[in-house]
Specification:
heterodimer, A: 420 residues, alpha+beta, Rieske Iron-sulfur Protein, five-stranded antiparallel beta sheet, 13 strands, flat, B: 264 residues, mainly alpha, Cytochrome Bc1 Complex, Chain D, domain 2, 52% helix
């Protein structure tokens, strides 16, 4: 990001600093913007383990020293002129004296000091009309925010809440609050930018390392503590401590039992029995041979199922192929007149699958894009599914309705711990 | 094209010379008989119905035969049209999917090239190629069907591909289930009974006509609903809204903050 953004000059229109577009000579210039700092980082770690001000700070000091403005050890605060704002009373002796007083004022205790204006070159023609205009602009933004807020209050009562599913209400409230917040923020930013003095302050970073003596002392203290405990010699204490630490987490593991009953064999039962009729999941009506068109599908449940939730492993897809489309011998053996039935529960994470493409015979799971080839044993041809979908062996009873010849011969759905 | 269609006008225009006409008629009749025995599907346009003739003209004009074969028997690039029924033609041409501009993963919906009357003529011609296939359905009164029931049926049978409000979704290898936003009630019905492209077929016994009308009513009423936030964001649910919130709104705030920082 920093590469794309040109280094922003502090004040583009100043004629006093000729080399604005060049890399900053001082860290003060580099710290002018976020991107500037990214581009020309002010390094402190580079001067490893030197208990002194950073390289950049020393650079500033050197600069300052060369100009003879400040003493090297006591960086003075310098208050530059306001960029826009009250006109400086130039020429009077009192003003000269005041400026001189700024230069000699000592810095803050934390080392923060202002750079003189000539260092960062913020001097602009001072124009009271501009000042007035900026004030007006900020005030009107605050005014706009006020109007928007009042509008929100009125709209809350005036607009019917359910008109167009609440669309007008949402627009009025959301839009009004957005305008109010944006205008307030923009006003504050403009206030700071146009009306406040543009000082450049530098706060020096300190070396982040502890002195070597302190580190050694800490190490020594720790080792001394360990020795005093006597873990090396007192074997019984050491062993009993290890023992209690080992057994302490046991209750937390035991309490996991309260998280619910164990599934026992529930995960192995899908709800299908031999001879169970296939019924429509919605109408609960049984399905006759010939009800489905070629290329048709249907979500079916075992007859007598209660709710889909209580039979979460039962949903099954009934698919009718065109004659000769089934490629797998085993699938053909379990099919009935080109009808096949497969579990609808994905073997990966248990999502119900029925995105079926009847030309390619792909069945796609919407959760993680596992793709099964339904004409070839529901083989996984893409995605994270662990196994082929289980097939339900089909038959037709005396009345011509589809029945399950046998229940699923394996647990359906995703893998589980005890599945083996 | 086939001898039989030529026979009718000729026989009508030559009443004065009865004998020769009779000879011609008998000869042509024999030819027709021979053709219908030899040709695999000779029943195509044995009627003089002007709709069929117009439909055949359309079939030729739009070069349907270049992919579907001279008699709609299908080819390497396109399926057979024999026995697909009028509903399939009305759907494919009425949604602009046919005539196909180029072969891709799937035919996109576009502006239809024929008028409704022309589509019906073409459908009549295709239907005359062979028996079978559903007729163009009648969806009058779908507005009175049970919307809630239609919603339940839609979520069971359709939502997995078309999304729960019919916004459409992706399938494998570039294929997709299209959005139902522009589909007319008749087209939705036709799609269900014919199973265009990779869509499974939902015949009248799988989903009864009443159920189909309920589904249509659900789709049309849910598509007609306003979006409370103004933009539906594809109506793919809370995920899309969160994505916009995080990427667009929050990202925009961060970028704006950085920008303000550079200008300070």
């Amino acid at each position: 990001m920093s590469d794309e953004t040109p280094q922003t000059p502090e004040t583009p229109e100043t004629p006093e600093t000729p080399a604005q577009s060049e890399p900053p000579k001082t860290a003060a210039e580099a710290t002018g913007s976020v991107f500037g700092r990214l581009k020309h980082p002010v390094s402190t770690s580079g001067a490893a383990r030197q208990r002194s001000t950073s390289a950049s700070a020393r650079e500033i000091e050197g600069e300052v020293l060369r100009r003879g403005n400040m003493a090297p050890d006591v960086p003075d605060s310098v208050r530059p002129r306001r960029k826009v704002g009250r006109r400086r009373t130039e020429g009077t002796a009192a003003a000269e004296a005041a400026a001189e007083a700024h230069l000699t004022r000592p810095s803050d205790s934390d080392g923060t000091h202002f750079l003189p204006e000539s260092e960062h070159g913020t001097s602009e023609p001072l124009d009271p009309r501009e000042d007035k205009f900026a004030e007006l602009l900020v005030a009107s933004l605050f005014g706009l925010a006020t109007i928007a807020t009042i509008w929100v209050c009125i709209a809350y009562f005036a607009i019917p809440a359910h008109e167009r599913l609440g669309q007008w209400m949402n627009f009025s409230l959301g839009g009004g609050i957005a305008i109010a917040l944006l205008a307030t923020g923009a006003g504050l930013v403009l206030w700071a930018k146009r009306l406040l003095p543009h000082d450049l302050a530098v706060q020096e970073r300190h070396n982040p390392y502890s002195p070597e003596e302190e580190e050694l002392l800490a190490e020594e203290t720790f080792l001394k503590g360990v020795t005093t405990l006597g873990l090396g010699q007192r074997k019984m204490l050491r062993r009993s401590l290890l023992g209690v630490l080992a057994i302490l987490p046991l209750p937390a593991v035991l309490f996991l039992k309260d998280m619910g009953p164990l599934p026992t064999t529930k995960l192995r039962k899908s709800g299908w029995k031999a001879g169970a009729r296939l019924v429509d999941v919605e109408t609960k009506l049984p399905i006759k041979l010939g009800d489905l068109e070629i290329g048709g599908i249907k979500t079916v449940m075992p007859e007598g199922f209660t709710t889909p939730d209580e039979n979460a492993l039962a949903p099954t897809m009934l698919i009718r192929f065109a004659p000769g489309e089934i490629r797998s011998k085993k699938e053909r053996a379990w099919a009935k007149d080109d009808h096949v039935a497969y579990s609808k529960i994905c073997t990966h994470a248990g999502c119900p699958i029925s995105l079926y493409e009847h030309q390619t015979h792909h069945l796609l799971c919407p959760c993680h894009q596992s793709t099964f080839d339904m004409a070839n044993d529901a083989k996984v041809i893409f995605g994270p599914a662990a196994r082929n979908l289980p097939q339900l062996e089909l038959d037709v009873d005396a009345d011509g309705y589809f029945i399950a010849k046998a229940p699923y011969n394996q647990p359906v759905g995703p893998s589980f711990w005890e599945r083996g | 094209m086939t001898p039989s269609t030529l026979a009718a006008p000729r026989a009508g225009g030559r009443r004065r010379r009865l004998a020769s006409a009779m000879i011609v008629l008998v000869a042509l009749g024999l030819l027709t008989l021979l053709y219908s025995v030899l040709a695999p599907r000779g029943t195509a346009a044995s009627s003089t119905d002007p709709d069929l003739a117009a439909g055949r003209d359309l079939f030729n004009k739009y070069s349907c035969a270049s992919c579907h074969g001279l008699n709609g028997e299908g080819g390497q690039r396109a399926p057979s049209l024999i026995g697909v029924g009028q509903a399939a033609v009305d759907f494919q041409v009425g949604t602009g999917r046919m005539p196909l501009q180029h072969h891709g993963a799937q035919a996109p919906r576009k502006k239809p090239v024929m008028t409704e009357a022309q589509i019906h003529q073409l459908a009549a011609y295709i239907a005359s190629l062979g028996p079978g296939g559903p007729p163009i359905p009648d969806v009058t009164g779908y507005q009175n069907a049970d919307v809630a029931y239609g919603g339940a049926l839609f979520r069971t049978n359709c939502a997995q591909c078309h999304n729960f409000v019919g916004s459409g979704g992706e399938l494998t290898y570039g294929k997709y289930a299209p959005s139902l936003a522009e589909a007319t009630p008749t087209q939705i019905y036709e799609a269900m009974v014919t199973g265009p492209e990779n869509m499974p077929v939902f015949g009248e016994k799988t989903i009864t006509p009443e159920q189909k009308l309920a589904i249509i009513n659900y789709v049309k009423s849910i598509r007609a609903q306003a979006d409370p936030g103004g933009a539906g964001l594809g109506r793919i649910g809370p995920v899309s809204e969160t994505l916009v919130g995080i990427l667009v709104a929050l990202g925009g705030c961060v970028l704006a903050a950085l920008w303000i920082g550079t200008r300070a």
